[in-house]
Design brief:
alpha+beta, 2 domains, 4-stranded antiparallel beta sheet
């Protein structure tokens, strides 16, 4: 036994604590790095049309409409959507979607088919997706065609001329 009571045991406990703390720190740094890598890959790769289609379903089923609004191409599409897609227009669309959630019930399921093309020319600057959604208090599914437009960076956004309510 050592002259000072418990000195080897105290040193051993201290070494163990430092080792565990370093291991935990490395684990956290690794997890943060993996998350950062995923974010960077998304940031450096513009969204595909399928990414946008999945985002549409996610926003409708979670009722979190901010990502949907951010994915809408602000370019006017007369006569359906003329004028700027400013904060007022975004607020109007958000309120319309929230009103549907209140009146017809939230979207309980969403699926999509696409891209499908309306004409045989297969215009490469646009893609058409057909969304099928079920609302909690609505009899039968709603079908919503949406047009996605390619952006200058090669990514895709939703055309303002798309059907956001399933009404038309």
């Amino acid at each position: 036994m050592s002259g000072a009571s418990g000195t080897p045991k105290a040193a051993s406990n201290s070494t163990l604590r430092v080792t565990l703390l370093l291991a935990l720190l490395l684990l956290l740094i690794g997890a943060a790095g993996a998350g950062a890598t995923a974010l960077l890959q998304h940031a450096i790769r513009p969204p595909t049309s399928d990414d946008i289609a999945q985002l549409v379903c996610t926003t409708y089923t979670t009722q979190n409409y901010d990502p949907l609004l951010a994915a809408i191409d602000p370019t006017p599409v007369p006569p359906a959507a003329s004028g700027p897609f400013d904060a007022s227009a975004q607020s109007t669309l958000r309120k319309s979607l929230q009103s549907l959630d209140t009146g017809s019930g939230v979207v309980t399921s969403c699926s999509y088919n696409g891209p499908v093309f309306a004409d045989p020319s297969n215009d490469k600057s646009q893609r058409r997706y057909i969304f099928t959604m079920q609302r909690a208090h609505h009899n039968g599914p709603l079908t919503m065609p949406m047009i996605f437009a390619v952006q200058p960076d090669g990514g895709w956004k939703i055309s303002r001329g798309s059907d956001f309510s399933g009404a038309g």
